[in-house]
Amino acid sequence: xxxxxxxxxxxxxxxAAALGAAVTLPLSLTPTAAYxxxxxxxxxxxxxxxxxxxxxxxxxxxxxxxxxxxxxGRAATTAAKGLDPSRTDGLFADLTSTALSxxxxxxxxxxxxxxxxxxxxxxxxxxxxxLRDLLLAGVDWMLTNRYGPGxxxxxxxxxxEIGSALALNDAAxxxxxxxxxxxxxxxxxxxxxxxxxPNLWRADRQIATGANRVWVSTxxxxxxxxxxxxxxxxxxxxALSDVEGSGANSVLxxxxxxxxxxxxxxxxxxxxxxxxxxxxxxNGGYGKELLNSLSRLLNLLAGTEWTVTDPDLDNVRSxxxxxxxxxxxxxxxxxxxxxxxxxxxxxxxxxxxxTVIEAVLRLIPGxxxxxxxxFTALVKQWIAEDTYxxxxxxxxxxxxxxxxxxxxxxxxxxxxxxxxxxxPRMDKAAHHRPxxxxxISAYSSRIYNYExxxxxxxxxxxxxxxxxxxxxxxxxHYSEDYWPTVDPTRLPGTTVVAGRPADAAGQRTTSTAxxxxxxxxxxxTLGAYGMELRAYGSTLHGFKSWFCLxxxxxxxxxxxxxxxxxxxxxxxxxxxxxxxxxxxxxxxPAPTGTDWSAELGTVRWVHLEGTGGYVFPEPTALxxxxxxxxxxxxxxxxxxxxxxxxxxxxxxxxxxxxxxxxGAGYFWLQAPAASAARTRQxxxxxxxxxxxxxxxxxxxxxxxxxxxxxxxxAAGTVQELTCDGPASxxxxxxxxxxxxxxxxxxxxxxxxxxxxxxPGLTVTAADPGIRATATRRGLRITADTAxxxxxxxxxxxxxx
Length: 800
Known about the structure:
Elements (H helix, E strand, L loop, with lengths): L15 H9 L16 H13 L9 H18 L21 H18 L9 H17 L11 H18 L1 H4 L1 H14 L15 H18 L2 H12 L25 E2 L5 E3 L3 E2 L1 H19 L13 H9 L4 E2 L2 E2 L17 H13 L6 H16 L11 H11 L11 E5 L4 E6 L2 E6 L25 E5 L10 H4 L9 E3 L18 E6 L4 E9 L6 E9 L2 E10 L4 E10 L7 E3 L2 E2 L5 E14 L3 E20 L14 E14 L4 E9 L3 H9 L3 E6 L3 E6 L5 E5 L3 E3 L2 E3 L3 E8 L2 E7 L7 E6 L4 E6 L3 E5 L4 E6 L8 E7 L1
Helix pairs in contact: 2-9, 2-11, 3-4, 4-5, 4-6, 6-8, 6-9, 8-9, 9-10, 9-11, 11-13, 13-14
């Protein structure tokens, strides 16, 4: 590096061997001499170039690599269409707006896509001099007409400071030897005009946080490499930890840190939650982009004097294990944590999971030992289980090279996830069994209901009103135009006032209720989850519970009321991969036409082919609808949606609580992936019994082992349990051992007191903060819940 910028040209912290192991393994799986001089600007450009192209690891004799190279060429052919630097209104005919900033970013992205193919050996575009000249003219056009010190930004700051800058940086690295000093100076000056420093962001000097901070740091880092500026790289390294600040903006530290510093609210929490834009759950959106960008930055800086050595870097393991793995369902990221990205056509079809996999592939060499093995096992599992979208057939050349090496390693795949995971810091839960996964989406006084900004996600009204998304063997269910075509007023699991709100109404709203969350029994697929529903924009209120007991989910509702409007609880709303999928109602087949609707009367059980069963121990009046729904992506996304109509078949089942109901409720058992025979069997002998459904407590008991699960909305008693206030409780029997798990889902109580009327029990193990004392009838359990933010405490008891 240039001595004038604070570092010598050949300075390194780690030796060449360490650098090869840390940096090249995720890219080419073999050390290369090109990276031996870690402090050399050309070597760092080489790293970034390899991230973009695959570098020396591309073996043209491998059919899969050859296919990836061909994809790169086809993408460039598409991106280059309409590229015309002689135009006066825009570099591309369809990107001429001077009011929409994404036209600027998209123009740069297309240039970078074409430049990638130009730089990758084996593509039709590789080394083409005419194409090189066209690309250089395109860069010049953008600098002269759209981007740089002489141009006033408009619309969305993100496009100027992050989106355009990232793409222009990439194009500059790919074309570096062809740019010339003057053009290179114009490029780096333009980027620095909008993004001068990782700690100073935006015209109002706002400090970037969460994913934005890593994006900004990436912009500054690559720009610094292009300018041979070591001091800027040092600021990037320090910005990830916020060394110069108070610690509040550290990307690597958990927001619920215990060192006395206060997080910004944006970023990862120790339970795996990720929040962006203050209170929006966003693991599958900004969270995945943070992981993606950080993995690239770590590759760039590894083994140099700017290596990230912050001890909080170890938290990345928790990000992956707790923040992504439970939210992936065989290649699909649960939509409840994807924010407004669900309304983008480019983000369907398991595209978000691809980003996660690529990021973890880059991380593996930087986390040696056990963590590397864990990451390797996860990546192998994620790639193998997604039979809808073959990762190896869609990823970029560099990630493909890394993936092939990982697949060939001795570490076995993790195997299917079997777990129940709750994320109290973002009001979400995930339930995984071998044959299905299920996600529950709630919100509270702590979390927003949904995000709709930049004219995106215009119909997200009920995404957190108790939405239950079921992931089965139909891996493309939430792809192939689900979000524009599903009835957004009848999302599965929700309780709603019928009718269509105005587009984007309630885009950033917390609930007036605090109760959202539950209890998860560790090492099992047992969990109690619930929410007090206080709907936005109406007087609708009620209490909703989901008791996830292995292969059965007991769904309970009570106290449902509204001053006006018809209220419905949606049992299911399924996009049918087979439009003629059989629906059995108490064993009788319902019509399979595309225009069927009916009042089904009192129903004991329902089975939908390819989805599973629904048992109603209390015969329930249901309504059913089977039909095709036609919509456009533009209806839910004015920014990225198209006007092309798409049509998909759906089957919807719901319970009508009537107009302006008071004290309404429901109870059914959802049996995902169950056969019709099993559903019929359970209707005759329900495996779970409802033992309480009031505005004080919901509770169920499992017949097989007597497990008791309860959500206390207020102080109350149910069978052997008496609780002094809001709490979620599980009591499980295993021979002579009894386990009690509890939490405070309001996250406001300093303690929970639970009386268990079972004599003859002694404590054998207890989490810190939970204790038991003997009473005349059994035990009084006291749990210190202050500061736990809804986390579960466990107590193990033994019969004497």
